[in-house]
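Per-record layout

source: Cellulomonas fulva
name: Big-1 domain-containing protein
length: 506
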Amino acid sequence: MRSRNLLRPSRSALRSRTVAALAASALVLGTGAAAATGGPPPATTPGPIPAASGWATITTSDVSSVAQPDLLRMSSAQGSRLLVGWTTSDAVRTRQLTTTGALSGPVRTVVSGWASLEQRVALVRSGAGYRAVLRGIRTTQPGERYAGAVTYGTSSDGAAWSLANGALSATQNGGYALDALDSGGTLVGAFSSVDDPSRLFFHVGAETTVPATTPDRRTSAPGGPAGYVYEGALARDARTGSVWAAWYVGSSDAAARGIWTQRILPTTSTPVRAPGSGTQVSVEQRVALVARSGGGLAVAYPVGYPFVTQVRLWRVGASTSSSSYVQVAARDARLVAASPGPSGRVWVAWATRYTGAAATVKAVRTSTTATRVGSVVRTRPLGAGTVWHIAAEGSRGPLDVVATSPVDDSSFVTGVFHTQVRAPLTVVRTPASVDRTTGGTVRVTVTDVGAPVAGATVRYAGRTWTTSASGVALVRVARGTPVGTKTVTVSRSGYLARSVTFAVRA
């Protein structure tokens, strides 16, 4: 919590110590960026593909640059709308968007008039309702119940909210981490605390007292109490039901520094560090831990030193070998977010450092096994050159991206903005040309990161074809077609349309 962080070192001080330690390590080991990151080389893909839609404004009212937005896909009873949550200087707000990205209803208030609030709110779908998990100090009056414990707002429809008479933590001393999820009907909260800054705390089950009376639990402290926990995250394995935590340890101690993962429920496992994460200088928002549909977890993060060169997606488990992750070239990536996609796929999104140009967010979607990545998609530019934080949700197919950013480069006003990107189709045609005098057939193959895409519409010369179960359409080119370059356009609901060309030769 902002007002409770005086007992912890500032991020800038920690960053300076960590940079110095990393530089010393590089000098001793003689390692460069390639050696530091390890694993396979970055994927070679063409330049980012521009997205079709621009950014819509969710709000520009009293948004702080430190506020981390959160996203939640609502149930079919609420039209599968997207619920967006964020904090202001004294309130927690939400707003809903339709599946197409249109605003749905006004900005709603979970709590307001608080003296202090943690920078992040965690949105949770629990039973038939919703929870907005928050942390703050409601008033500074003696005897105030809400004086730093993790608590939550409740809603049956994501519109009308009320503050719960209960808590998700026994500790009231704030930190730099907050997340929550529902595990089989039981709320689980994760948070950091100055009581033990080297470990991530978690609490199982909401209690009707504030603060909670049941003691909080803690993750293990990898490498010993030599660092500070930031940006903790939770995810629940859809296959086993186990709950996992991930967190970043900022430290000058190489044995502790990096992103760590650990199973915390129903039993605890030994913490494992994400491969290559120890070279990072800092993580600026919630660690991008994600539960894949159908089972398994993954965490996404930037790698490379002294400059970030890739974004890596590691399939969480005991193995940290190069076969356990996939990565994509992403120079100067920061603010990495991730979301489950359909059928085991994972969406990964990131922003980049300030360059002077209007900021964009880039995204990529994996194969169903999360072992390959597709082409990178780039959003339309925002109004300013800086992105403060991002969040992403792509379980339905397209990726909804929410970013906090200045309204423009001359303004001190921060807004919450939304856009939607779609995974691009991969289209291959053979042969590259046909003879004008005989005509011929062009075979068009449509895939999504190697998987055939059936039902895609293929258009050429006013005619249409539909791809088969193997993702193939046979386009007939008539005899006598004029010589020149011809274009075939391919589209499919939920995807970004693509086109390819072939030649008609004399």
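summary: The first helix runs from residue 11 to 29. Residues 1-46 have pLDDT under 50 and may be disordered.
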